[in-house]
Amino acid sequence: MFKKVISEHTIQGNEIFLLESQNDKFDKTVLIIGVFHGEEPQGEYLINRFLKTDLMNLKNKLLIIPCLNPDGKIKNQRQNSNLVDLNRNFPTKNWKRTEKNDYYGGEFSASEIETKFIINVLDNYRIDAILSIHAPFKIVNYDGPAKNLANKISSLTGYKVQSDIGYPTPGSFGTYAGVERNIPTITLELPENETDESLWAVNKSVFSYFAYEF
Description:
Blueprint: E1 2-9, E2 15-21, E3 29-33, H1 42-51, E4 61-65, H2 70-75, H3 113-124, E5 129-134, E6 137-143, H4 147-157, E7 160-161, H5 173-180, E8 185-191, H6 196-212
Parallel strand pairs: 3-4, 3-5, 5-8, 6-7
Antiparallel strand pairs: 1-2, 2-4, 6-8
């Protein structure tokens, strides 16, 4: 049902890959991304649970990156191996060089292998919506023309919609994909201190929605 179509390796030799559903006929294309930040592994778990379900007669084409930041995941750190926050490294109009802290955006925009990987995906597919899975705020954040979509995801999960995360995010993926490339982009912020099973129970409907209804 899914085929690995693009693969890259980090500077530590860990693989990043894109899975593509092999349905010839489809209405829309949805990109789903897990583990932007290494200390937020819940997205990969939910994606893998979804991939184990009975995925038949998909309405939409699904593009899935289970784990964008394997180096960070292995080290249980937010950033990648270069200590760059991938969610501050995109070539947006508001990107800027910042202090080398947890939110360091790199020496220049799109400097990182992981960032270039996603840009390559966006350049090679016509994508109708993006779901990026994070933690720990328990909200549905959105960028670009995605307000109605965010309200739908909120109705499925019970998480409130919040258009502004509450602090500056120069070089963020949401700004790059949602605002500047005009792709409806949902950042699903999962709650912390909940079991993987409880997260799946709440969020499995989100995956089903993008696969069969959106």
